[in-house]
């Protein structure tokens, strides 16, 4: 079987912004889905949802994006109607609950990272990606499967940073995984990058759950205050069941350092 992990980034890796509460945390969320299942189930059902509620067309597809949906910006202005929004939320939550995917989220506290490592600091993005890919590799090995990795293209230097980080892990491994294992279970030495316009179902799912996954991890650790919105709370209930588990232990959720 071949899987793909679709990766969404929340926050930025800049250590200079670590003291700013709004930029203190970086998270990478990976949604692991078997590729045949994406083609046969997830993509058609996601497109059917869009057709039901939004003015979507194959030549100009609507791309689900959490922030734009939350603010009811075009093409999501129909969600300003409370009755429509309630129906859409229920349909989306039902789909998220029914889809067969595995979730892994790695979140790093950059402020604590800076304080702990005064003389040597692991790049926060590379550190988080290493932990994410370790868990993905272990998942593939346990399931006698192979897979690849896809993230959203951000263009220019951002894409180069992502590709370089991935390639370093594939060729050099980590403290806990030697490169042989990565090269055994990962089918490509290159990170696949796609833009929003490519209408990738897995990247849209990752975008929809990443913010809530990060926030519930930080709330649980007491690193932020506040609470989840009612909708986000429902998403949190669903993703609790999606986190990768090994012998009953949650393996798909990690707070660094």
Mean pLDDT metric: 92
Main beta sheet: 6 strands, mixed
Report the strand count: 8
> What best-fitting shape do the alpha-carbon axes yield?
globular
In order across it, which strands form the biggest sheet?
5-4-1-2-3-8
**Helix count, DSSP H or I runs of 4 or more residues:** 9
Which characteristics define this entry?
257 residues; Nucleotidyltransferase, domain 5; six-stranded mixed sheet; two-stranded antiparallel ribbon
Write the layout of secondary structure elements.
Layout: E1 2-10, E2 25-34, H1 35-53, H2 66-70, H3 82-98, E3 102-109, H4 110-116, H5 124-142, E4 146-152, H6 156-172, H7 179-185, E5 192-194, H8 201-220, H9 230-240, E6 245-246, E7 249-250, E8 253-256
Parallel strand pairs: 1-4, 3-8, 4-5
Antiparallel strand pairs: 1-2, 2-3, 6-7
């Amino acid at each position: 079987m071949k899987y793909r992990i679709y990766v969404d980034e929340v926050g930025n890796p800049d250590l200079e912004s670590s003291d700013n509460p709004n930029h203190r945390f970086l998270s990478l969320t990976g949604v692991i889905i078997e590729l045949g299942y994406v083609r046969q189930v997830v993509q058609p059902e996601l497109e059917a949802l869009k057709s039901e509620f939004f003015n979507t067309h194959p030549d100009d597809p609507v791309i689900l994006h959490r922030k734009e949906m939350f603010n009811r910006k075009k093409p999501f202005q129909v969600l300003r109607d409370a009755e429509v929004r309630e129906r859409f939320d229920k349909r989306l939550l039902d789909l998220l609950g029914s889809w067969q995917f595995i979730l892994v989220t790695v979140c790093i506290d950059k402020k604590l990272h800076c304080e702990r490592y005064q003389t040597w600091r692991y790049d926060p993005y590379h550190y988080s990606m290493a932990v994410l890919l370790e868990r993905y590799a272990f998942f593939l090995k346990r399931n006698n499967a192979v897979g690849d990795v896809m993230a959203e293209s951000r263009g220019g230097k951002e894409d180069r940073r992502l590709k370089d980080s991935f390639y370093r892990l594939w060729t050099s491994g980590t403290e806990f995984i030697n490169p042989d294992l990565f090269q055994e279970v990962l089918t490509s030495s290159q990170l696949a990058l796609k833009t929003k316009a490519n209408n990738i179902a897995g990247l849209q799912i990752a975008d929809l759950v990443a913010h809530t996954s990060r926030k519930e991890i930080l709330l649980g650790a007491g690193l932020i205050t506040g609470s989840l919105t009612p909708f986000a709370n429902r998403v949190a209930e669903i993703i609790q069941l999606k986190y990768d588990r090994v012998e009953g232990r949650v393996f798909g959720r990690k707070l660094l350092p």
